[in-house]
Amino acid sequence: MDHGHDMGGMNMTQSSSPSSTNTNMTMSHMNGMMMHMTFYWGHKAQILFSGWPGSSTGMYVLALFVVFLLAVMIEWVSRSRITKRNDVVSGVLLTLLHALRVGLAYLVMLALMSFNVGVFIVAVVGHAVGFLVFGTRVFGSGRGSDDEDEDRSLKLPPLSC
């Protein structure tokens, strides 16, 4: 009676040699494609969608650009002040913005789960650029305006999704 679990053609009860055990601990077969379980550097990756970007360098660069834009958009949505009113429409709008921010954050997190170093770097740089543009007063669009009475010291916003 075989109690092995077949995961994409890899029977979990198969005995393996010590050298293949290390390979199995760092990579996993998923639908015939190798999935990395540790950080790696390379353009052959699977980010967000099955088969994307594949082995094309151009598509990999596009995927990195998409992850970068997602991270910048998270910072923009996190710091956007759409309304100052306190009514039902404002509450619904703020709820939709919160849902958008959380959805974008989850997409970046899923992209990071590819364990690709390039994706990690562009996600961090995207958040940093987004914070620089939208979270500081370097470009005149930071938190608060000149006519508001609030603490003018630069502080990191609370870390929350």
UniProtKB/TrEMBL annotation:
Full protein name: Copper transport protein
GO cellular component, one term: plasma membrane
Region described as Disordered: 1-23, 142-161
Topology in the lipid bilayer: Multi-pass membrane protein
Transmembrane segment boundaries: 58-77, 89-109, 115-134
Coiled-coil spans in chain: none
Organism: Saponaria officinalis
GO molecular function: copper ion transmembrane transporter activity
Record's subcellular location: Membrane
Similarity comment: family membership: Belongs to the copper transporter (Ctr) (TC 1.A.56) family. SLC31A subfamily.
InterPro entries given in the database record: Cop_transporter
Compositionally biased intervals (Low complexity): 8-23
Keywords in alphabetical order: Copper, Copper transport, Ion transport, Membrane, Transmembrane, Transmembrane helix, Transport
